[in-house]
Design a protein that fits this description.
Largest sheet: 8 strands, parallel
Helix content: 25-40%
Radius of gyration: 21 Å
Mean pLDDT: 91
Bound molecules: flavin mononucleotide
Order of helices and strands: EHEHHEHEHEHEHEHEHHHHHHH
Number of strands: 8
CATH superfamily of the largest domain: Aldolase class I
Number of helices: 15
Structural class: alpha/beta
Number of domains: 2
């Protein structure tokens, strides 16, 4: 596999936008992000979407906003994804995120949920570029230009899916101070499809994202949608500035990311084996449990760590059983014993060799 990045004259190790793990509700919480960071030092991470409304109003009500904003110091580079469309609320939420130490504020203009009681957010806002631009401007005014304000969106919504529609949306929002667009390369159908169907049924049209980059080369365009393996990525990097991966990264984080630092970012440090990652993650879980986190809230994110490897089923079974053990520490001991047994038997992986 060649490093497509080098042809663009970038400094690969410094540009974490080249590969990122997508924001995913119920998935990319701080525990999963910590797991990913054990596997890849450079891949950019995103929080689950936090609505500006929830963040600001819970803070105003005197509740600790860190329940939305907490992240481990090792997670950087990490972006906070916000949902919402009230410019003042978005600015206040972005300021809270900036003060909490996030490296980017990302606006969710791609989620196919329709209006919610607390205001609208997501893909329906593609029809209101001026409102999205007002949010970007308001955020910029509040936080300055120290960290990027980015937008994650689709190639269109419903019958609005022409090149001109996407160009107009991007042009208006870019003029307000956003120079990075993450494009989920399928349109969203707002009436009639569930969010899950909207990630599967509308066809992927990568060419639309590539064309956007060609026509607006000053923008950073990140391609998202349907990327399944690390091997898929270089071809996209020849046409776009970065690739964002969602489901494949959650379902099989090691398989996807173990060689990412080497092949995408040009950092050839030795990649730990799945077993070494598992042991480090269990140590993290133990620390989390000691500070009051439920063990299952941590371990549930590691189900895919050994995906497609011989020890995968036993690993998943052990993680699924944590709630049946007398104490969390008993559960952790049992999982460690499994790893030790499997490692001795050569069932669980050894250190991943780097590809040539
Ligand atoms: C369970 C789940 C939750 C998601 N939650 C969000 C979210 O909070 N914000 C967002 O912008 N996209 C969300 N997405 C969409 C992903 O970020 C991504 O755009 C989509 O899954 C396509 O990428 P993929 O084919 O690599 O998975 C979610 C996707 C999944 C599967």
């Amino acid at each position: 596999m060649t490093l497509a990045c080098q042809s663009k004259g970038m400094t690969p190790a410094l540009n974490s936008m080249r590969l990122s793990v997508a924001p995913m509700m119920e998935c990319t919480d701080r525990h999963f992000r910590y797991l990913v960071r054990l596997i890849s030092r450079h891949t950019r991470l995103y929080t689950e979407m936090v609505t500006a409304n929830a963040l600001v109003h819970s803070a105003r009500a005197g509740r600790d906003p860190m329940r939305f904003l907490a992240h481990h110091v090792d997670e950087h580079p990490v972006a906070l994804q916000l949902g919402g469309s009230d410019p003042a609320l978005m600015a206040e939420a972005a300021l809270m995120g900036t003060k909490a130490g996030f490296d980017e504020i990302n606006l969710n203009i791609g989620c196919p949920s329709d209006r919610v009681t607390t205001g609208k957010f997501g893909a329906c806002l593609m029809a209101e570029p001026q409102l999205v631009a007002a949010c970007v401007r308001s955020i910029r005014d509040a936080i300055g230009s120290v960290i990027p304000v980015t937008v994650k969106t689709r190639i269109g919504i419903d019958h609005h899916d022409s090149d001109a529609f996407l160009d107009d949306f991007v042009g208006v929002v870019a003029a307000a101070g956003c120079d990075t667009f993450i494009i989920h390369a399928r349109k969203a159908i707002l009436a009639g499809l569930s969010p899950k169907e909207n990630r599967e049924i509308p066809p992927l049209k990568y060419e639309r994202a590539y064309k956007l980059k060609r026509e607006m080369p000053a923008l950073t365009v990140i391609l998202n949608g349907g990327v399944k393996t690390l091997g898929d990525i270089p071809a996209h990097l020849a046409e776009a500035d970065g690739v964002m991966v969602g489901r494949a990264a959650y379902d099989a984080p090691y398989a996807l990311l173990a060689q990412a630092d080497h092949l995408i970012f040009g950092d050839a440090h030795a990649t730990p084996s799945e077993t070494e990652i598992a042991l480090a993650y269990l140590a993290y879980a133990e620390r989390e449990v000691a500070s009051g986190t439920r063990l299952h809230a941590v371990t549930r994110h590691a189900m895919g760590l050994f995906n497609s490897r011989p020890g995968a089923r036993a690993w998943r079974r052990a993680l699924s059983g944590v709630n049946t053990m007398p104490t969390p520490n008993d559960a952790l001991d049992a999982i460690r014993e499994l790893l030790a047994r499997n490692e001795t038997d050569g069932v669980v992986s050894k250190r991943q060799p780097l590809a040539a």
